[in-house]
């Protein structure tokens, strides 16, 4: 990263220096050209009152030695030239400066000689008798100026590039220093002293780092919990099977052991199914297939299905409310209802009740599952939707819960774009409200 920033800064500086030098040369030449033409114009105006060569010579106006003076008649024929034979010179009426002077009273032109690398500046002015007085001067062209200044420009360019390289290295080091420090101390990045523009970037990096570490801890805890939860029923199955295999179990014990194997296998199967379902919900990025569902009807089916389980736990379960509809995935809604109602039954008190309500109000559909169970204290309420988190572990074991039901509920609610509200008090029960 340092090298890339360094190279880019040096490249920008180099291009800027080159363009600046070229621009300065062009601007300088333009000023030089204007100055030469202004000088020629000044001489022309001083000599414009003279109508003959003799008058020009007698005017007393000092004429520079490199200044060429030419008088052209109104027909374009050269009448006088101080550097050439006027007779041998051709007609000048087609020259742009002469044509412009005849038309507008004065004219100017610049013609370059690539062979001599020089430019000839012309200024022509129309005299009172209709003839044209032309002054011309040879001067260096822009190419000759540039070539003459090239060694000095190259020297300046090299010095500036070296200075830019040093400056780029220093600035890059200062720019990258906070990022390098961040990489070494990512956990304390918000406490680092840095320039203001980098602060949001560092806050974002720290948040992402915290999320990664949190997810890593959750995966580690999940792996440990899965291993523990799978080990318990497998140990029971292995122990019962070993007793039957060695012949140490009587016929009556064999039936009891077989029942224990069956229960442990069912618990193991339930746990595996819940883990698979959680993995499916985690891995599904797109939207699930949805349809318009009668939530009240689905809740009625769930209540009927769990009535036997409620009777077994000495709990009553009932449905109230009105017909209402949601657009959601059918399988997810069935799982949501089952897990909420099953939890309300499992963690209830003998003789307790579970009240399931469904209704629609103000463009929202509500599902409420209320129980008179053991309740959840404040410190546990934020964590009960974590995988394998249990408030009362001994009760979970006895009721056969896997600790994944509410984690599945949380995923389904997120997938369905719904909101969940929890109200609970130890010894008084729990109310879970889902708003679609």
TrEMBL record:
The chain crosses the membrane at residues 9-29, 149-171. SUPFAM superfamilies: ATPase domain of HSP90 chaperone/DNA topoisomerase II/histidine kinase, Homodimeric domain of signal transducing histidine kinase. GO terms for cellular component: plasma membrane. It catalyses: ATP + protein L-histidine = ADP + protein N-phospho-L-histidine. It holds the Pfam family HisKA. Its EC number is 2.7.13.3. Residues 225-436 form the Histidine kinase domain. InterPro entries: BphY/WalK/GraS-like, HATPase_C_sf, HATPase_dom, His_kinase_dom, HisK_dim/P_dom, HisK_dim/P_sf, Sig_transdc_His_kin-like_C. CDD domains: HATPase, HisKA. It is found in: Membrane. PROSITE patterns: HIS_KIN. This is histidine kinase. The keyword Kinase applies. GO terms for molecular function: phosphoprotein phosphatase activity; phosphorelay sensor kinase activity.
